[in-house]
Amino acid sequence: MRTQVAIIGAGPAGSLLSHLLHRSGIDSIVVERSSRNHVLDRIRAGVLEWGSVEVLRAAGLDARMDAEGHVHDGAALVWGGREAFFIDINRHVGSHFMSYGQTKMQEDLYAAADVRHAAIVFEAANVEVHNPLSDRPSITFDVGGIAERVDADYVVGCDGYHGAARPAIPDTVLRTFEKEYPFGWLGIMSETPPLPDLVYANHANGFALASQRNPMLSRYYVQCSLDDDLADWSDDRFWSELTTRLGSTVGGQVVTGPSIEKSIAPLRSFVAEPMRYGNLFIAGDAAHIVPPTGAKGLNLAISDVHYLSRALTAHYDGGDDEYLDRYSEMALRRVWSAVRFSWWMTTLLHRFPEQTAFDQRAQEAELDYLASSMHAQAAMAEQYAGLPFES
Ligand code: FAS
Ligand code: PHB
Q1: Do 288 and 258 sit in the same domain of this protein?
Q2: Ligand 2 pocket test, candidate residues 211, 214, 345, 349, most atoms within 8 A of CB
Q3: Atom number in ligand 2 closest to CA 213
Q4: Residues 262 and 208 placed together within one structural domain of the fold
């Protein structure tokens, strides 16, 4: 097979890139390891930065998002037994964010792919990248027991942290930066009415988060030990810990019910540099991982793809390669900004294993300062809602 852009991975990054390239008249083939339903069954992110909302809107992917998503003017913090403190993003920086599940965004992307009869190969095994430095890179894979090859002008790895693309960049070129956090998140989904706002909690027992998917679907998380497994967390124990950590006022508003999904995810930061090697590019989780505290993972995948689709369009429309040549440094500036912000929120809100009473007080003092300073709130607001894309 032959195409202009061969994309590995049909998660949010790969399927959005294919969609945006199509709108620019650029052909692509997407090769995905899992089945379509397996990708759609994943429960992941829930918050879209306003820049991400605008990328999806400009791409004609906004109808269901606007109908079913929930626009928020800010998010709340609770700590030290205080009442919830609302960080008013709209008031501070005139922006918002959208609660809209990644699962629904993925469904919208596949529905749009079906309309345009997109070339997405599911259940492809043994995907490999070949000749990334040549002007004829290719990928090979097996599907249904048949060996296939796609020749392309460019290959884009949108294949997540464990994908095949990043390893095609030699260790002599690739630099990676990593930070493991000494705790995980236990997340549940329940068919109960959510709290009106997203609420992040710092508590001596650990972090908690109240989020949402729709008016009858709530998403909640509590910090847990990396040694925990799901058998350690009955629904009763989860609800008791969540409502304790959210504090009596906010916790008292939580409508509990049976969990319909429960999972534990470890937290880590990871960045791979550069995000380009010859005619191979990497985007999304293939290039970086952030702890979900700052709700940046999915949004970084969208911003990488926004930059790369703009670059490929400039190349094919007019032979202008400036954005292609600047993709890695431009994307990495936004990645490192989000990695730092996610680290800051994680460090501020979680209880670390060796944490002392002094450390807990220092965290609470920083939160008290945040509540007292419009400048500190504005700084957090603009980063949480998402900084402007570079032109
Ligand atoms: P994805 O990992 O989503 O997609 C990569 C695709 O490539 C997958 O479909 C995979 O099957 C495929 N693939 C992998 N290897 C391949 C190969 N060799 N060949 C072909 N295909 C291959 N972010 C948030 O903002 N908030 C959250 O609450 C949140 N929760 C998360 C929970 C979990 C358990 C995980 C793993 C991530 C979470 N994230 C969250 C981050 C998540 O949303 C990612 O940022 C987002 O899915 C990134 O999208 P992609 O880069 O497309 O990567
Ligand atoms: C979610 O709704 O899944 C969510 C929201 C905010 C976060 C992380 C996850 O910071």
Answers
A1: no
A2: 211
A3: 2
A4: yes
> Does the predicted TM-score (pTM) go above 0.90?
yes
Residues 32 and 147 in one domain: yes
Q: How many CA atoms lie within 13 A of 145 on its CB side?
A: 0
CB atoms within 10 A of CB 263: 15
> Which residue range is the domain that position 259 belongs to?
181-267+354-385
For residue 113, give the DSSP letter: H
Give the residue carrying structure tokens 């009858």: 216
pLDDT single digits (tens) 230-242? 999 999 999 999 9
Is residue 227 domain-resident? yes
Mean pLDDT, range 134-154, rounded to an integer? 97
Q: Which are the contacts of 158, defined by CB distance < 8 A and separation ≥ 6?
A: 7, 8, 9, 10, 11, 13, 14, 17, 165, 282, 283, 284, 286, 301, 305
Clarify whether residues 335 and 200 are in a common domain: no
Predicted pLDDT at 236: 98
Read off the CATH number of the domain in which 128 is found. Answer: 3.50.50.60
Q: Quick check: is 262 catalytic?
A: no
Residue 264 in 3-state DSSP? strand
User: Which 3 state secondary structure label does DSSP give 355?
Assistant: coil
Q: Are residues 245 and 327 in the same domain?
A: no
**11 and 120: one domain?**
yes
Residue with tokens 């249904």: 144
